[in-house]
Amino acid sequence: xxxxxxxxxxxxxxxxxxxxxxxxxxxxxxxxxxxxxxxxxxxxxxxxxxxxxxxxxxxxxxxxxxxxxxxxxxxxxxxxxxxxxxxxxxxxxxxxxxxxxxxxxxxxxxxxxxxxxxxxxxxxxxxxxxxxxxxxxxxxxxxxxxxxxxxxxxxxxxxxxxxxxxxxxxxxxxxxxxxxxxxxxxxxxxxxxxxxxxxxxxxxxxxxxxxxxxxxxxxxxxxxxxxxxxxxxxxxxxxxxxxxxxxxxxxxxxxxxxxxxxxxxxxxxxxxxxxxxxxxxxxxxxxxxxxxxxxxxxxxxxxxxxxxxxxxxxxxxxxxxxxxxxxxxxxxxxxxxxxxxxxxxxxxxxxxxxxxxxxxxxxxxxxxxxxxxxxxx
Length: 377
What we know:
Aspartate Aminotransferase, domain 1; 2 domains; three-stranded antiparallel sheet; globular
């Protein structure tokens, strides 16, 4: 179980209501402290031995892999979601005149690469519609057919947390031989992800949102096939076999380091970001992702129930990922409400016509009360 009073572990001043984890995760004090120690060490580079270039990223790799229950060999360190999507797009070979399934209003990092690949193949793009009588899962499933070569979607929609049943989608995609790529940036760390049940080709996630880490360091899962056969986006010296032997770097080799390490980005040692990310992952592991999700779902359920009574709309609880939610108004007007929220010291995001509310374990009953008071007008 997660204790109810955890705010002291975060660097959030009194009076600030931070409900914007979906934009950038709140900073844990332990993460800041790890970063400060790393900066001090970096000021004395003679204290950083050759081994640290590889050993510290390996500790992080193992920690993230354990968090999502995969082998460390299945995980690569990447600088952004778009970098990971670019790796997937470089490796996947789509049939001519097939189709690619995306979501309507999907986040751009998981769109642009597929638009380019569709134009080059050529292939068509199908976008699963939102807002109709179908659930988002049903809408995605209705787009998959015998000509589908790729399904590239998130676990939930980035603007309002509408959930997609990835197991159901994976079953349909595998049945027609389609590849499956998941952008888990808005879910990994706060929503359990069953890689074994889904069997995706690739999963990407940034580390600075629900994983509570620093900006510029994220993660790529690659399936066993791509761990063996995948082609990296860049040819870094650090991803080659034996690269930890600095005395033999000019003995050029064809082999990569084991598994998905071939996909690591250049300069993945990240002497400041890696310790910060490790501190964040260690705390998430202690809390456990399933327990985090349960805690956050209880917070958003309370907000949903009151907001519906105030005339706001949102998807049904069963159609929500639960760790964040979006509220809409019948008039679609959000600018005045945004001003009122800022004046009350409440920080969240408006995405389109949606008020996106993304708490974390620092969120207190008093925070929720202040939000609901503003929503009530």
